[in-house]
Amino acid sequence: MARHKEFDPDVALDRAMEMFWERGYEATSVQDLVEGMGVGRRSLYDTFGDKHALFMRAVNRYIELQEERAATVAKARTARDAIRELISAVLVPNAHLKGCMLVNVATEVAPRDSQAAHQVDRHMVKTRDFLLDLVRRGQQDGSVGSTAKPEALTTMLVNAWLGLRVAVRSGVDRKRLRKDIDEIISLLD
Predict the structure, then answer these.
(1) CB burial class (10 A; 0-12, 13-18, 19+) of residue 64?
(2) 3-state per-residue secondary structure call for 22-84
(3) What keywords were assigned to this record (predicted)?
(4) Most buried among 32, 37, 46, 187, by the most CB within 10 A?
(5) What distance in Å separates the CA atoms of residue 109 and residue 125, rounded to the nearest whole number?
(6) Cα 105 to chain center, whole Å?
């Protein structure tokens, strides 16, 4: 007779995502995962596969959450407001503890893991396309200056956003980050 799962796989996956996000792949042991997810070792392997498979599912879960957030942000009154809201997400309380999971994966795992590198690249392309659409929309609705090339503004936004995410992880003062965000947004005039 098959045993009924005594845990919610979605909740367990979210817990694994949080652990990988905060500690990184290498520093998170299978035992840490078993304890943090509240599952038995056998259940972990039966449900998620090995540590790497679980990690990739956690990365995909993070990407899903980011894409859901982007869809919500896109509904802002103006494209400029949407861009500010997206970039200001780095100021979410406790974000400084973890930074951006994709930046963490890009620097820790992707250089030697083609599967992780592919996921990071895929998400970065989608993010760039999303920001490019916002810039173009902003130039049409008048909330973003129309003299600069949309591609150039997008490149600046992507790189500034990534830099902010690294700054958050390294503990840069929130006041400094707010000022930096204001300066980045002013470049859209």
Answers:
(1) exposed
(2) HHCCCCCCHHHHHHHHCCCHHHHHHHHCCHHHHHHHHHHHHHHHHHHHHHHHCCCCCHHHHHH
(3) DNA-binding, Transcription, Transcription regulation
(4) 37
(5) 18
(6) 10
